[in-house]
Amino acid sequence: MNEEKDPLLLQHEMDGIRELDNQLPRWWVWLFNLSIVFAAGYLAYYHVLKASAFAQEGGVAAFEYKAEMQRGTELKSAAMGKFEAGIPNLTPSQDPILLNNGKQIFLTSCAPCHRSDGGGLVGPNLCDEYWIHGSNFADTVTTIWNGVPAKGMITWKNYLNPDQIKSVASYIHTLRGTHPPNPKPPENQTPVSTAPSQFE
Q: How many whole angstroms from its chain centre is CA 33?
């Protein structure tokens, strides 16, 4: 083949390589053009006009999502309110599975402040007879539920569900009367026998 006479060879050359003016297949060109038209239509339909039911803002799906979120929030608030109202009547669980779950939560979330044996570190000793926020089981649940933000204890109801809070409170109840080594000194000088409860 005579390259000089080949009509597909263009005149510019680089390092002895000459460009071949080979046309793209027509089907590829049409597909490329159709993809541009589709992209423009998609942009207008979903993002400019927001006419689709599945539009991220303003579509039916977005409204349904917001309604479901609102309903979920209301159900959560109702469940939390019901649990909170029943706190004064709670008693420690004796269920080994629940106590083990409570222990795992305690070791993960509570031990950094109360030590793994409950002897107290940043937070108070949970094993002696002196309780700052009340000595009843319900007082313990309430303290975990609401936290003590003024002293750095977060409000655990935002992170743990009611069953988890009851399980960790039940586990803490089993620590009472134990004698860990080098416990933190009492921070409330009123012992359990005379300490007032907020539910009394």
A: 45
CATH of the domain at 165: 1.10.760.10
Give domain status of residue 191, yes or no: no
The rounded distance, in Å, linking the Cα atoms of 10 and 22 is 10
Q: Token pair for residue 35?
A: 């993809």
Regarding whether 114 and 166 lie in a shared domain, the answer is yes
Could you say which DSSP state residue 17 is in?
E
At 117-156, the pLDDT tens digits run: 999 999 999 998 888 888 899 999 999 999 999 989 999 9
Is residue 89 domain-shared with residue 167, that is, in the same domain? Answer: yes
Q: What does each C-alpha distance from 175 to 21, 81, 171 come to in angstroms?
A: 85, 28, 7
Range of the domain at 104: 85-175
* Residue located via tokens 């080949």: 6
pLDDT digits (tens, 9 = 90+) for 87-108: 999 999 999 999 999 999 999 9
Phi-psi region for residue 113, left (φ > 0), alpha (ψ -120 to 50) or beta? alpha
Total count of domains within the chain: 2
C-beta of residue 169 within 8 angstroms of C-beta of residue 140 = yes
Q: How far is CA 22 from CA 8, 169, 176, in A?
A: 7, 78, 86
